[in-house]
Design brief:
The protein is 50% helix and 5% strand. The chain is mainly α and 160 residues long. The chain has one domain: Four Helix Bundle (Hemerythrin (Met), subunit A) (Up-down Bundle). A two-stranded antiparallel ribbon has the order 1-2. α2 (29-44) runs antiparallel to α5. The longest helix has 26 residues, at 110-135. It is globular, with a radius of gyration of 17 Å. The mean pLDDT is 94.
Length: 160
């Protein structure tokens, strides 16, 4: 998911486009980066010992467009969230999968929290790819098999 989103973001040429939304009810790429980064940082910091919704997180602020944030600042927020996730995953052993953790006060088995985070992140990464593709219409290079390219992709074409 991380690489897929980063490959989409890299194709958005103009940093101003990172802050463009389709309409007033949609999120820009910048907002999605802020939100995913903030969510991962909150959920995965002290994952086994503290609620996944940290008191220091301002979720509502993640959805406010901040045009002062450039690509490098956004990617720094993004990396902090992913680093928290990867660090937590590295610390988990098989015996941890059935432990209980809390997200917003709600009990989850670790395996359920993993699934919840993966689903949530994949949802937003799909939005990011869609929006990047839209913003770079005619220039965007497919991140998987391009339209009409299934025959050329060979046997792997049926695995995605």
């Amino acid at each position: 998911m991380k690489v897929l989103a980063e490959r989409a973001l890299a194709q958005v040429r103009d940093d101003r486009l990172l802050h463009r939304a389709l309409d007033a009810e949609s999120n820009s790429l910048a907002i999605l980066v802020q939100h995913v980064g903030g969510n991962l940082l909150s959920r995965w910091t002290d994952f086994l010992s503290a609620d996944g919704e940290k008191p220091t997180r301002d979720r509502d602020r993640e959805f406010i467009e901040n045009t002062d944030l450039g690509r490098s600042e956004l990617l720094e927020l993004w990396e902090r969230g992913w680093s928290a996730l990867f660090s937590a995953l590295d610390s988990l052993g098989p015996e941890d999968l059935l432990r209980t953790v809390f997200i917003r006060g709600e009990a989850h088995l670790v395996v359920q929290a993993l699934h919840r985070s993966l689903s949530h992140t994949a949802y937003h990464v799909g939005q990011m790819v869609f929006l990047a593709k839209h913003l770079e219409t005619g220039r965007f290079t497919s991140l998987s098999i391009p339209r009409g390219g299934s025959r050329d992709a060979g046997p792997r074409a049926n695995k995605t």
